[in-house]
Structures are given as structure tokens and as C-alpha cells.
Amino acid sequence: MADHPVDEKLPALKMATTGLQHVAAMYAGVVAPPLIVGAAIGLTATDLTFLTGACLFTAGLATFLQTIGIWKIGARLPFVNGVTFAGVAPMTAIVASTEDKSDALPIIFGAVIVAGLLGFIAAPAFCKAVRFFPPVVTGSVITLIGISLLPVAFGWAQGPNPAADDYGSATNLGLAAVTLLIVLLLRRFTRGFVKQIAVLLGLVAGTLIAIPFGVTDFGPVADADVIGFPAPFHFGAPQFQLAAILSMCVVMVVSMTESTADMLALGEIVDRPADEKTIAAGLRADTLGSAISPLFNGFMCSAFAQNIGLVAMTKIRSRYVVAVGGGFLVLMGLCPMAASLIAVVPRPVLGGAGVVLFGSVAASGIQTLVRAGLDRDNNVLIVAVSLAVGIIPITAPEFYHAFPETARIVLDSGISTGCVAAVLLNLAFNHLGRGGRDAHDVTHPMEAGEEITGVPRAPAAP
């Protein structure tokens, strides 16, 4: 009996090239979180290179867990794992609330370890509770992730140092705009592999264009070793603070919800539907990978949805191809010189590419909301309020200034507060009491009986 395409082992050259394509599709997404958090802390170029390499290394390990698997761990699907964007805003909030910035990473690592272990224990039960995280909740959260990250891209576009004379200069903004234009042109006029790596090519082109303007620094590459290892606890032993742990536990719930949705989608694409057993095994890989990651100075890991799109586009369904991609990630993490290349990219160039990268996250959340049934008044209210609550820290950063610092670690993360609001509102409107009875009635939030313009009224539930 022939192997299922998911278990097929392709010729070595094809495995290598298609594995590299998966790395190219996810690379920018893996290195962005350590860049954001590292910049917030004020890490040196050397430490930033180390942190980036560690995240590449741990993403490779987590990908191995998912694709190859051990025991009841791993979905054994062509599933790429990497640093989740969902954790970026809460981690920067932890950094902002930490007086001694040298303690920020140990506090983050401690919180991720605890959240990962709790998630591992909860994985089997979470499969049964996933009905409380429908598209209206996950779509709201994913949209908030993108919206929360966009200000980071705008800050990068202005330059690396707000105190510098050239911060926000025409040169910096021009480099960001040119990079954005290059990425858009590549996405519009190319196809296949080139189109998939448009962001990566945009970063390369933008960096080369920036050289004559004197904003490209090749020092990190020159100073980096060819071979290195992300020594455990390089930034210090983990510290465990309750507020930070609660914040990252919320992120873990969001991450597990996203991964569940991704496994369901990927199972359909590769013609091996993900049942409850597969989802539980996949979530164990996610959470165990996250718990192990801080030991090697990495962050929380989750599924990368863009790679699912790559599987659908290429029709190559072998999980071993993705495992080879994980091997490349590990090798890159063991080569500081390779990891340092991203440190060469000027911040304005990163800002231009970040508009596409982070905006795409928000757009994918909107796509999820479109499928969430916004013709239902209950869902409109859930989205409206959860987005409003989640945007508070972005539009009014001092809104929670009177609250204790420990509480602000959670409250200043729009993703965390928005997620909690979405889950509670979904329970209140769609699960408890009369929630289901009015689910199909589309009315204006303030005026009973008025339908949303252009949206036909759905038939009442029998």
C-alpha cells in the first residue's frame, strides 16, 4: 500500500529546495518578534543577533516536534512552527513595566515556560473547549495582533533612535516607502517562489538602496562568529512574576486556538482531516516547544499560517519537506553570522516591510471575521466591543495609568484584554441564557429592530 502523500519522502534535492522555500516564507515572521522585543529592551547588536539566532534554533526544534513527532506529541502534518506574533505586544508591555531592563527577558522566559507547561497539560481538554473560540473570537484577536504591531512598523520607518536628529527624516521615511513599494511590486507582478519571498527580497533590495545613504551597518556580520550555540539562559535564569505569567497564559490560549484552526485547515488541504487525537498531539507539540524554547533563549512557538498557504499552492504535502525546513532553521540558529544578517537591515527598511507583514496579520484576522457570521447582531457586538477594548492601549496609552503596575502588564496588552473581552462576550451572547435565540437577528447595536445596511436578514433558527 502506497504511503499517504503526507508521509512521502521526496528526492533529496526536491526536499532541500522545497524545505528552503518554507524557510523563506516564514523567515521574516520568525525574526520580527525578537527584533521588536530586543529593540524595546535596548539590546546591543551582538545580543540582538544572539536572540534572533536563538529564535531560529527553537523554531526548528518546534517544527521537528510537529512534523516528526514523538509519542503523542506532534500532529505529524506539514506544519511549520515559529515565534508567535500574539506574544509580541504582551512581551513589550512586560518590558515597559520592568524597571531594570536586564530582568525583562528572564521575566518573559519564566512566563513562557509556565504558560507552555500549563498548555501542555490542558491540550486534551482544550480540544473539547475549542467551541468557545469560534471565528468571531479568533478573528477579533488576530485582527488586534496586526493592529497592535503596526505602530512598531511606523516607529521603525522613522529610524532606530527617537532621540536622533534624523528620526522621522525624509531619508528614513523615503527608504521605508521604497521598500514597501518594492514588496508591493513583487507581490503584484511575480508569481510562485519569488512572490512567496517578496518580503525577504524587499528587505535585501531596501538594504542595498540604503547603503549610499550611510544607514547600513555591516558591523554585526563582521563581528559575528561562523559557528555558535544558543547557550541556555544566556540572558539570566528565568524569573516568575504572576502578572507576566497571566499575560502569557492568555497568549497561549490565543496561540492554541490559532493552531487548532490551522490544523483543521491543513488537514483538509492535505486530505488527512485533523481529528481530536491529531489536534491534541499538535497542541502538545506547540506547548512543549514553547516550554523548551526559553531554555535556549527563544519565545513562545505557534503554527505559521503562511506556510499552510504554501502547501496549498505547491501541492507538496510531505511532512518530511517541512522537517527539512526545520533542519535549516536549526542550522541558521547555530550560525550567528547567518542570524546577524537581519541586524544589517536598517530600521526604516524593516519599517517598510513591516507595514506589509503586520498589515497582513490584521487582514487575515478580517478574513476570519468575514467567515464568522457578521450578519448576526450578537457577533457584531462581540467584534465591536472586543476591538474597542483591544485598541485602548494603542490609542490611549495612559488609559490605565491609575492601575497597579502588575495589572498594567495585562491591561496594556490590547491582545490580552481584547481576547478576554471576546471570549466573555461570546459566552454571554452565544452560549448562556437567551444568547442563541437572538443570534440571527441583525440590529443596530443601539436601536432595536434596525438592520445593518446591505446585509440581508438571515432566516431565523428553527
TrEMBL record:
Subcellular location: Cell membrane
Coiled coil: none
Cellular component annotations (GO), alphabetically ordered: plasma membrane
Record-level Gene Ontology MF annotations: xanthine transmembrane transporter activity
InterPro entries: NCS2, UacT-like, Xan_ur_permease
Membrane disposition: Multi-pass membrane protein
TM annotation in the entry: 24-44, 50-71, 78-98, 104-126, 133-157, 169-186, 198-215, 235-254, 320-343, 349-369, 381-403, 409-429
Keywords: Cell membrane, Membrane, Transmembrane, Transmembrane helix, Transport
Region annotation Disordered: where it falls in the sequence: 440-462
PANTHER family with a match to the protein in the record: PURINE PERMEASE C1399.01C-RELATED, URIC ACID TRANSPORTER UACT
NCBIfam families (UniProt xref): ncs2, NCS2_1, pbuX
Family per similarity comment: Belongs to the nucleobase:cation symporter-2 (NCS2) (TC 2.A.40) family.
Protein name in the entry: Purine permease
